[in-house]
Amino acid sequence: MKASLQPYSHETLLERLEELYEVEFTWLKVEPLVAVLVNLDRDTQDFILGWAMRLLTTNVYISHEFIIRVVEALDRLERRVIEAWAVHAADIFDQQGLRPALMVIQQVDSFLENAHAHAEGITFAEVESILSTFVCGLSGRRLKLAQGDSVYTDSETLYLPNITAQLIKSKDNFLLCKAQVAFMWAQTRFGSFRVDFARAFAAYPDPAQALAAFHALDTLRLEAYMERELPGLWRDMQRLEALDEAEKREDFCAFPRLQSPDATVNDVLELIPQVLGLPLPQRIYQPRLDPQAVTACMLARMEREKILLRVKLAELVKEHQEETPPDLPLSGEEEEKKAVEPPEFELWEMQEGQGMELVLDDKPIAPPEDVKQLLTSIMLDWGDVPPEFLVPAGEGEYDPSLYQKEEKDIEDVWKGIYHEEGAFLYREWDFARQHYRKNWCVVRELELSPGDPVFVDKVLDKYQGMIKHLRRTFEAMRDENRLLKRQSQGDDVDIDALVEALADSRDGREMSDKLFQHMHRADRSMAVMFMVDMSGSTKGWINEAEREALVMLCEVLEKLGDQYAIYGFSGIGRKRCEIYRIKRFDDPYNAATKARIAGIIPKDYTRLGVAIRHLTEKLNAVEAKTRLLITLSDGKPEDYFDIYNTQYGIEDTRQALFEARRTGIHPFCITIDQRGKDYLPHMYGHANWVEIDDVKKLPLKVADIYRRLTT
């Protein structure tokens, strides 16, 4: 058995605390702290001193007060509650300042009243990024997550409270948040809101009771869908229901109609009279139903999407006519008839999992991604796409302000302090505290001013031989084939599959017919985000190298056909982190984009973690099987006279990269810093960074990355 260590002596504690609090400068008295610590066992002393050191990175006075108060409360607080208390005080300091944070430390009894929520509860900030990614992977309308006063949805946004603490363990509270989000998605996906709430329950003597009965019955219908669509999560939801300590109520008797894959909200409405007056079952993951919020949101969306779809269809007609001119010129009568009778689209639903197809003049047209999203959203609201929605809008029929988002003036966001409207707020990892600083960094997206329009031509002339070589390399990557095995038909016999099939046959089992193999041209599904360091340290040849490399990459990526975007980043301090739009994923590589690449100039500092988090969100919004986040930088993370220049910045960047990997993104760094080997392996991993000293090597390195990640 391992012997326990001796407690720290009075002298050791005094020396350590004097050094910790730099008493010759702070004038803080440490003798009272020594007096309360000296009589504790060594394990408790180490625990308290460890958290005091963490809090010291936040504020010296909070740390000093913590030691006194925590010893007073040791007999009433479990260690996990003490940890939650310390983190809560640090969060309050970040958000409100020193005085409110000291009040948290001093008012232990007040904290104890909500100790479980602080210790085992899951905050919205902790689950937002994870569950946003989860929702993106579900079918149907693109949904957003937001913090609200309770769990509910307006059919576009899924609201969760600031803290979820209904269950005993934090992992179960996280799973509860996931189940609640999934249930609200099911409401939007399977037609729960395809109801006129104002009229549907007006005839009942007690409309509120009828609405509650509707919600309970619809929950049974949605549960059947979720059991079929998300069986793994459904099993977890069943376990959550068993953990719920709230008073249980018996379910209704079975309603086979609601278990059917064809069950609709109309079946629910017809069953309401049968359950009125009965106790209503309540699920722990069941959200609140807010008909007013749903109705207001849906009415606005349905009108807006009708207009937007008709405008988009008019654009498709124009493109279709430009691509397929008539074989013979139309007569005056035919032209007049065409003007009076505008073309109409038909919508064909493909086989399950194949999407949908628009038909114009008996010719199929694959709708672009934004039109697909529109059609999906309309079908969720209406059940199908009404015929009048498929008539392209006439010239000038709608005011653009009805369907275009109003762009905010970026300068307006400076009118606040740092929670400005129009800015993006991101957390930041404090490795000393071992927790996030919530809503700590403020990001603004800015348009980059164009540069010298002849810059690109100069680069193309200077590196024409290199660009030709790279084009051949990338074209070969585009045409790469891969061997598909165990196919029902093909060019050759799959020996492995044949051997297994013969063995099955001898054992009396059915012999598989998938005995062939064939070469298949790979369908590329790639999205790459280039994150360009625009800090002041890139001034000179480094900035020139970045711009030249981006020109060459754009030239060859256009040949490859993969989706790519380019954003720059810089800033001063946590309240002014700036992202510069150079090329969005849907921007063409045209004169405007080339001018913005030429306009990349050195600016301020390199707060890297927040830039990674912002661009990770953008990259995850793109449909692609493989997503790359490639950083072009000249050095390690740093900021203006800030703790970010220390290990803090490296650890925050490492955490941001870990978050990106967790969503399926492959990060890679290309640096011109010869000292990169001192910190990049810790941030990116040993195989995910490279140091170069020549601009001509940069596109070749990117080609190597592509090949490794896509073969």
Automatic annotation (TrEMBL):
Keyword Coiled coil in annotation: yes
Domain (VWFA) ranges: 527-709
InterPro entries in alphabetical order: NorD/CobT, VWF_A, vWFA_dom_sf
Coiled coil regions, renumbered to chain: 460-487
SMART domains found in the cross-reference section: VWA
Gene3D superfamilies: von Willebrand factor, type A domain
Superkingdom to which the source organism belongs: Bacteria
Assigned keywords, A-Z: Coiled coil
PROSITE patterns in the cross-refs: VWFA (PS50234)
Name this protein carries in UniProt: Nitric oxide reductase activation protein
Origin species: Thiothrix fructosivorans
